Amino acid sequence: MQSREETATNVLQETGAALIHAYDDGRIISGQGTVSLELLEQAPHMDTKRVPINGGGLKSGVALAAKSFNPAI
């Protein structure tokens, strides 16, 4: 059985596709941060958020966006 990295490498070589990391790409993290902005627009007094963690991209994006919206968070 191949690891996901090996599988991804094979697909990239066969298709010429680009690999975009879900947790190690600033553009992806910024995009995921829009979740936080939408929440804060709908509930500006929210002081706690629970965010699922896998690779950390979603949590990073949510935290960065929330902090830029409200530095007290």
Automatic annotation (TrEMBL):
SUPFAM superfamilies cross-referenced by the UniProt entry: Tryptophan synthase beta subunit-like PLP-dependent enzymes
InterPro entries: TrpB-like_PALP, TrpB-like_PALP_sf
GO molecular function terms noted in the UniProt entry: ATP binding; D-serine ammonia-lyase activity; L-serine ammonia-lyase activity; magnesium ion binding; pyridoxal phosphate binding; serine racemase activity; threonine racemase activity
Protein name: Tryptophan synthase beta chain-like PALP domain-containing protein
Keywords carried by this UniProt record: Pyridoxal phosphate
Positions of the Tryptophan synthase beta chain-like PALP domain: 3-72
The keyword Cell wall biogenesis/degradation is assigned to this record: no
Entry-linked Gene3D superfamilies: 3.40.50.1100
Cofactor: pyridoxal 5'-phosphate
Protein family membership: Belongs to the serine/threonine dehydratase family.
GO BP, sorted A to Z: D-serine biosynthetic process
